[in-house]
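User: Fold this; tokens only.

Assistant: Input:
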Amino acid sequence: MAQGQYINNDATVFEDAQALMALNKNILLKGPTGSGKTKLAETLSETVDIPMHQVNCSVDLDAESLLGFKTIQTNDKGEQEIVFIDGPVIQAMRQGHILYIDEINMAKPETLPILNGVLDYRRKLTNPFTGEVIHAAPGFNVIAAINEGYIGTLPMNEALKNRFVVIQVDYIDGSILSDVIRQQSRLDDMSLIKQIVQFNSDLRTMTKQGQISEDAASIRALIDLSDLATVMPVRRAIQRTIIDKLEDEREQQAIENAVELNF
């Protein structure tokens, strides 16, 4: 794959996601934070050559964040008029683009039902701000990502979840992770990359045992660590990119122990 594209030990993850897009199925990418869900969506967008509009969910997400808002503009005649500025959902629908909804279970449950008609066979939306009925143009697809059990997340509404086909996206490891570090970071020292991959394996074991949070073992953090390791000692790079982000002293100590073992 080209530099910066999504790679996984399980090739069926990308293959199935691409097949689901061809069938115009809504895709729900389910997996831990930093496992590459957004990178997978971006790679799908690049592969099918269809632009992607992104919604980042939070408890503050409201209908305006999804659909757009009214504002006052001056027209060609110098007169002021009220116009509606399309948000990411309507932009993607009108243009036949991909809509990516990140961390969909961070949104308040009462916010998302507005998308029910967008996510089912109708592929349409009645804009509550203007009354306009919008039908999605050909090519429109929806991809969402979910971090289950993550702090701040809520159980996903079953009626909403039933509108998606789920693909599990897990962390990568071994030679695949080594390839990703070489392709997506500035580090080319293979012996150091091998040590970092082993270090990450130890972190993954600790996350499964509940000793440290999933953030500490994310691919994102490893890429940052690898970049910093080209300009400073690897131990200091780990301090900056992983340890100092954690607030729990026990987690910090657990990672420092893994550093001692690997470096």
